[in-house]
Write a structure and sequence with these properties.
By secondary structure, the chain is of the alpha+beta class. The protein has 2 domains: 80 residues, OB fold (Dihydrolipoamide Acetyltransferase, E2P); 55 residues. Helix content is 46%, strand content 29%. The chain is built from 2 helices and 6 strands; from the N terminus they run E-E-E-E-E-E-H-H. Strands 1, 2, 3, 4, 5 and 6 form a 6-stranded antiparallel sheet that branches. Strand 2 and strand 3 form a beta hairpin.
Length: 140
């Protein structure tokens, strides 16, 4: 699983501590770590104090890969912040999507109501047709 981590002071055994800051849940979905979970690593000692790194961990917390997070962070800035995708913008888009969803729900309810009305009218017409057929038979 991929994590964003920060390198912390090197320990006496030549290992550095990685403080896990966030965990990738899906392709563009991350969760901020609530606990200050640490992983010790000799590979992390290659990075400076407080450096941000991307760490791939196995299910047993073994480091599979570690790389500098600079290019990843810059891509985030480029993709989201340069284009004006701010938290306020995302909030507005969320609100618009909710309004659109509510509008579609209302339209769907209106269509359901009309469908029921049409079904009731069809049944009335069928009943009238049956009455008309009976009346015709009586006249004949």
């Amino acid at each position: 699983m991929l994590h964003l981590a920060q390198v912390h002071q090197k320990s006496y055994a030549g290992k550095a501590g990685l403080r896990l800051l966030a965990t990738q849940k899906a392709e563009n979905v991350w969760a901020v770590a609530t606990e200050g979970e640490f992983v010790l690593s000799t590979e992390a000692s290659d990075y400076g104090e407080s450096a941000l790194v991307l760490v791939e961990l196995s299910s047993t917390q073994q480091i599979l890969s570690i790389r500098d997070a600079k290019s990843w962070v810059l891509k985030l800035v480029e993709d989201y912040l340069v284009n004006g995708i701010t938290p306020a913008f995302l909030e507005q888009e969320t609100e618009r999507a909710e309004q659109w969803r509510q509008s579609l729900t209302l339209q769907n309810q209106e269509l359901d109501r009309r469908t029921l009305e049409l079904e009731a009218r069809r049944e009335q017409i069928q009943a009238l047709e049956e009455d008309l057929k009976r009346e015709r038979k009586q006249f004949e």
